[in-house]
UniProtKB/TrEMBL annotation:
SUPFAM superfamilies: Acyl-CoA dehydrogenase C-terminal domain-like, Acyl-CoA dehydrogenase NM domain-like. Residues 254-387 form the Acyl-CoA dehydrogenase/oxidase C-terminal domain. The keyword Kinase does not apply. This is Acyl-dehydrogenase domain-containing protein. InterPro entries: Acyl-CoA_Oxase/DH_mid-dom (IPR006091), Acyl-CoA_Oxase/DH_mid-dom_sf (IPR046373), AcylCo_DH-like_C (IPR036250), AcylCo_DH/oxidase_C (IPR009075), AcylCoA_DH/ox_N (IPR013786), AcylCoA_DH/ox_N_sf (IPR037069), AcylCoA_DH/oxidase_NM_dom_sf (IPR009100). Its cofactor is FAD. Belongs to the acyl-CoA dehydrogenase family. Keywords: FAD, Flavoprotein, Oxidoreductase. Residues 27-140 form the Acyl-CoA dehydrogenase/oxidase N-terminal domain. PANTHER family: ACYL-COA DEHYDROGENASE (PTHR43884), ISOVALERYL-COA DEHYDROGENASE, MITOCHONDRIAL-RELATED (PTHR43884:SF12). GO terms for molecular function: acyl-CoA dehydrogenase activity; flavin adenine dinucleotide binding. Gene3D superfamilies: Acyl-CoA dehydrogenase/oxidase, N-terminal domain, Butyryl-CoA Dehydrogenase, subunit A, domain 2, Butyryl-CoA Dehydrogenase, subunit A, domain 3.
């Protein structure tokens, strides 16, 4: 770890610095989040993440340490035990966890606690907030998020899982896919249709949101073998005649899509920040290796074929970082449209993927070896290009909403 520490500070930060704390654009509160999370990250070096990724082990040690130090409530209300900071600060927290070398394995282990319950904060009753938020902030409850379905994918409005009211309960039947942390969660925030499509005027109507116990006696959760982020599971979830108490319905029946949408821009900012972290981690390893590895009698980084692509990666990451921070600030100021959050997530995911790819190429054969960790970074950098929204759908959004072109999906 010490090999990555800065020796001098002529610039704001060298790409080889380990978690620099003085980058431009950071507010005092962002800097203090960065400093505190960086200290925690020192206990979780790349070797920890490589082991947990290889052995598919959830990073309980980090999760518990963050919970004990109050970090899981970073942007939840103070009255329930949170710190009431903004998405701008949460983005720094998740970027830092990822940038430490933990990548998505680190960020995804707490992602849902950090912001997933925003619909409960905004639309839940006081009784629900008292019941749901403190255990989540304390790390006692772990929540997963069930929106994506096997048959409908990105076409969320046509999702097929349904619920019907029976007395004091709703009866849920259907399936979800990719539900992350389903193996370790005891709660689920789930979106289902309560009014059939044929009976609504608009597709956006008739979906309802529940935050409830993940009752494994009726819900079957099966892990999906996957490319990366292997310390944090993703699952197929099946349920039939699952009795969910009506008191776990969030907001009004039929308003679920509106509530989910509310948190979407913030989630894009957070995922973008997590991607940035991978990109900077990759660039750190690449620049250190390029300086040290000598072939043909000189460091490989003296060759412009190695140096220039890395310089480009830094510029792309910095451009994406400014866009992500702008989107976070706008969200915290109450701006509700999504062009900067979507564009920032797009740019960050692309920049991170490119940086991870260049880090592998810079290491030559050793880039393919697990020992240098960049192959793990590359696997992890793929995810933010796909989820929570794909690159194609972001371009559809920008095309329609910013360019004013016809809706294409
Ligand atoms: C590791 C992982 C973790 C995840 N965790 C969760 C989770 O916790 N909870 C959850 O609900 N979901 C989760 N997801 C799901 C994720 O959000 C979706 O995979 C993502 O939104 C893409 O949906 P899809 O896979 O169904 O793709 P599809 O909808 O099947 O699309 C396939 C491809 O076609 C493209 N495409 C589709 N329609 C169009 C169009 N009209 N124009 C252009 N291109 C189009 C898409 O962009 C995509 O590239 C996770 C996914 C992964 C991989």
């Amino acid at each position: 770890m010490s090999a990555f520490r800065a020796k001098s500070r002529h610039l704001h930060a060298l790409a080889s610095d380990f978690l620099p704390t003085n980058l431009p654009e950071w507010t005092e509160s962002q800097k203090s989040v960065r400093e505190a999370i960086s200290k925690i990250c020192l206990d979780y070096p790349d070797e920890y993440w490589a082991e947990h990724d290889t052995e598919h082990k959830f990073p309980w040690e980090l999760y518990k340490q963050l919970a004990e130090n109050g970090w899981l409530g970073i942007c939840l209300p103070e009255e329930y035990g949170g710190s009431n900071l903004g998405i701008s600060e949460a983005a720094i927290m998740l970027q830092t966890l990822s940038e430490s070398g933990g990548c998505m394995n680190a960020a995804s282990s707490v992602h849902m606690n950090i912001f997933g319950l925003e619909p409960v904060v905004k639309f839940g009753s006081d009784e629900q907030k008292k019941r749901f938020l403190p255990p989540l902030i304390q790390g006692k409850d772990r929540a997963c998020f069930g929106v994506t379905e096997p048959n409908t994918g990105l076409d969320t409005l046509r999702l097929q899982s349904s619920a019907r009211r029976e007395g004091d309960n709703y009866i849920l039947t259907g399936s979800k896919i990719w539900t992350s942390t389903g193996q370790v969660a005891n709660k689920i925030l789930i979106l289902v249709r309560t009014t059939p499509l044929a009976d609504v005027k608009k597709l956006t109507q008739g979906l309802s949101l529940f935050y409830t116990d993940l009752d494994r006696s009726v819900v079957k959760v099966t892990e999906i073998p996957k490319l990366g982020r292997c310390a944090v599971d993703s699952n197929v979830v099946f349920f039939e005649d699952w009795k969910v108490p009506a008191e776990d319905l969030i907001g009004q029946e039929g308003d679920g899509f509106k509530m989910i949408m509310h948190g979407m821009n913030a989630e894009r900012v957070l995922v973008g920040a997590e991607a940035l972290g991978i990109g900077y981690a990759a660039l750190r390893r690449a620049s250190v290796y390029a300086k040290e590895r000598v072939v043909f009698g000189r460091p490989i980084g003296q060759n412009q074929g190695i140096q220039h692509p890395l310089a480009e990666c830094w510029m792309n990451l910095e451009g994406a970082r400014l866009m992500i921070y702008l989107a976070g600030r706008l969200y915290d100021e109450g701006y509700a449209d999504g062009e900067y959050a979507n564009a920032g997530k797009f740019m960050a995911a692309e920049a991170a993927f490119k940086a991870a790819e260049r880090a592998v190429m810079t290491h030559g054969g050793m880039g393919y070896a697990k020992e240098y960790h960049v192959e793990r970074y590359l696997r992890e950098a793929t995810l933010s290009r796909i989820a929570p929204i794909s690159e194609e759908l972001i371009k559809c959004y920008i095309g329609q909403r910013v360019l004013g072109l016809p809706k294409s999906y």
